[in-house]
Amino acid sequence: MCSNLCRTPAYKRQRTVLVLFDFDLTLCDEDTYSVVIQMALLAGLTLPPHLQTPPEYEGWPEYMRGILEYFHVKKITADMIKERLQECPMTKGMQELLRYLHDHQEPSKFTAEEGDKNGVAPDTKTVYETVILSDANSCFIQWILEKHNLSHAFAKVLTNPSEVTADGRIKLGEFHEQTECKISPKNMCKGRVMEEWIAQKVKRTGSGYSAVYYVGDSMNDLCPAKRLGPTDIFFVRRGFSLHKKLAANDVLCKVELWSDGRDILKTLKALRHLKGENIQQ
Ligand SMILES: [Mg+2]
Ligand SMILES: [Zn+2]
Hints:
Radius of gyration: 21 Å
Binding site for Mg(2+): 22, 24, 217
GO molecular function: metal ion binding; phosphatase activity
CATH architecture: 3-Layer(aba) Sandwich
Shape: globular
CATH class: Alpha Beta
Distance between the termini: 29 Å
Keywords: Magnesium, Metal-binding
Order of helices and strands: HEHHHHHEHEEEHEHEHEH
Largest sheet: 6 strands, parallel
CATH superfamily: HAD superfamily/HAD-like
Helix content: 25-40%
Number of domains: 1
Structural class: alpha/beta
Pfam family, one: Put_Phosphatase
Number of helices: 11
Bound molecules: magnesium ion, zinc ion
Active site: 22, 24
């Protein structure tokens, strides 16, 4: 007799893990705003007094709008900025990790028959949804992803909107405006954006994620991590600012350190193995 399980399409019997990546100094091995600001120095320009000190935490969109406007006046074009950003390398091992996540993305390419053939019950498959959650902006991220042929690797890029206007200016917007969260800047509470994304998924499909893995490097990744639970994982870049400042009781979720994307890949495979999945797949 066939149970209900047999009649459920394979993709509905999978565990979907949401894998959220920060961008600057996580996926990309540079801080894109620092790279752009440094272009002024490389061009031999002295920034006007009000742009000489970048903000510490709050006020980045306003500051970057000032920088981009100054660049426009000084004929540092959007194309020149794009070209410079496209020289930024991806962090070591990230290409390999993203390829793996893409090969096991939701909906899975595996059918129930294949699952059975490999001796793995189809309801134990883990699939991933890969999303960027970044306080950079859409142009900078897309340009770098394009350069590394990674535009297809993400289900969504959640970031501040930006566009190149007809007169060659880069127009930079803000993701939202919030004042509820005190540990996030006004233009982006990453924790709230993450929760909204998860809520949309529940609305869309009727079920949420079985776990959330968040990969980051700096203190602006702490807000979403604080909202994770014991089955989730916060992947913290070893030796970077977040690792140095993170206290043991800051988060409820598991914390794993990483130096290379392959460290994360190893953990993902080990988890699948623990759950009895064939990690060769
Ligand atoms: Mg970062
Ligand atoms: Zn927040």
